[in-house]
Design a protein that fits this description.
The protein has two domains: 3-76, Beta Barrel (OB fold (Dihydrolipoamide Acetyltransferase, E2P)), CATH 2.40.50.100; 194-408, Chloramphenicol acetyltransferase-like domain (Chloramphenicol Acetyltransferase, 2-Layer Sandwich), CATH 3.30.559. The chain contains nine helices and 19 strands. It has helices at 101-108, 121-130, 148-161, 188-203, 216-233, 239-253, 297-312, 386-401, 404-408, and strands spanning 3-6, 16-22, 29-30, 35-40, 45-49, 54-58, 65-67, 71-76, 206-214, 260-262, 265-267, 274-276, 278-280, 283-285, 288-289, 326-330, 349-353, 356-363, 366-380. Strand 13 (278-280) and strand 14 (283-285) form a beta hairpin. The model is unreliable at 84-116 and 158-162 (pLDDT under 50).
């Protein structure tokens, strides 16, 4: 007796998934709860376990889009791995017997075989090869039939009158090097990313404001305490924890930046669930640090490492990627100098970090070289006014350039 394995329900808003990869082959013996396939939704990738031990019989193929509840495979009762499937037998299609040209020629001369004005098979073949219209040839056979000799004579007569061959089309220009192309089906995740980004651009009044941060104070602090911090807490002291703490402090002071629109209402959150944009193998994902406002620097660093590792291993769950109230994205790790990040709907704002560059700035009336970073805040102008967005970004800058304020909460 076989058991059907179906696509499980993975979330209220998910109606279909893509079969990303089979982890087992058709005919393999699988144990109960052993992972047999990877399914990909528009939010995450998850594994499909076997619901009993037995022989796997694959139904759906890699790349197929399946609705929730659709049958993916069956598992038959069995005790041992199935043998390799037998190779398919090759069958040769019998060649069709061709008529002998000589026989066709002989048949063409049968005076009683064809009606008047009709070319014999041999004559028709000659006329067709030479591009001569049979209606222009006068037949000498019985009742005006066109014989082989008529076709051969018509060929000689018609040759001078034949239309000149059309000029050959110009040869395509020769291009050096390979010019290969390949097509890949868009994954559910990539299609959803594309749909959401276009939706945000079309449905929000998105603006971006910029500022710059002198990173020297944070870099000096890290250089002084990074070894002690790692020895005590087991994680490195990175920039992201400082930015997260600065953002959560500023969000408390400017709650509109932490709000969202739901139908005709503004929803303000008293907590800060900060989404951290992470580049995963299958696309950009945004796992969420819950209640980031209540976490210490080391707790934030540990949470970031855990979520980033899961993202790169495609192990994030739906719950870990939903419900954020504000997003931080760091294009600086790829060398970005400046950008306008797109809001992560339904949130109303996103902070973009960029690379750190040594630049000359004026400081206390002197020109000095400092490690500077441009920061960008994209926001929905329907909720957040210019005063709030600029003030929020200035507050983040202030906290980062004087990190003691983060500890003293001033």
């Amino acid at each position: 007796m076989s058991l059907e394995i179906k696509v499980p329900a993975v979330g209220e808003s998910i109606t279909e998934v893509t079969l990303a990869q089979w982890l087992k082959q058709d005919g393999d013996f699988v144990e109960m709860d052993e992972n047999i396939a990877e399914l990909e939704s528009d939010k995450a990738t998850f594994e499909l376990p076997a619901e009993k031990a037995g022989i796997l019989r694959i139904i759906a193929q890699e790349g197929d889009t399946l609705e929730i509840g659709a049958t993916v495979c069956t598992i038959e009762e069995g005790d041992a791995p199935a043998g390799a499937p037998a190779a398919a037998k090759e069958t040769a299609a019998p060649a069709a017997a061709a008529s002998s040209p000589a026989q066709a020629a002989d048949d063409s001369e049968n005076p009683d075989s064809y009606a008047a004005g009709t070319a014999s098979p041999a004559a028709a073949k000659i006329l067709r090869e030479k591009g001569i219209d049979a209606s222009t040839v006068k037949g000498t056979g019985k009742d005006g039939r066109i014989t082989k000799e008529d076709a051969e004579k018509a060929q000689v007569v018609a040759k001078p009158a034949a239309k000149p061959a059309a000029a050959a089309p110009a040869a395509a220009p020769v291009v050096a090097g390979a010019r290969n192309e390949r097509r890949e089906k868009m994954t559910s995740l990539r299609k959803t990313i594309a749909k959401r980004l276009v939706s945000v651009k079309n449905e929000t009044a998105m603006l971006t404001t910029f500022n710059e941060v002198n990173m020297q104070p944070i870099m000096d602090l890290r250089a002084k305490y990074k070894d002690v911090f790692k020895e005590k807490h087991g994680v490195g002291l990175g920039f992201m924890s400082f930015f997260t703490k600065a953002v959560t402090t500023a969000l408390k002071e400017w709650p509109a930046v932490n709000a969202r629109i739901e139908e005709n209402e503004l929803v303000y959150s008293d907590f800060c669930d900060v989404s951290i944009a992470v580049s995963a193998p299958k696309g950009l994902v945004v796992p969420v640090i819950r209640n980031a406002e209540s976490l210490s620097l080391q707790q934030i660093e540990k949470e970031i490492i855990a979520l980033a590792t899961k993202a790169r291993d495609n192990k994030l769950t739906i719950d870990e990627m939903t419900g954020g109230t504000f997003t931080i994205t760091n294009g600086g790790v790829f060398g970005s100098m400046m950008s306008t990040p797109i809001i992560n709907a339904p949130q109303s704002a996103i902070l973009g970090m960029h690379n750190i560059v040594q630049r000359p700035i004026a400081e206390n009336g002197q020109v000095v070289i400092r490690p500077m970073m441009y920061i960008a805040l994209s926001y929905d102008h329907r909720i957040i006014d210019g005063r709030e967005s600029v003030s929020f970004l200035v507050r983040v800058k202030q906290l980062l350039e004087d990190p003691a304020r983060l500890l003293l909460e001033i």
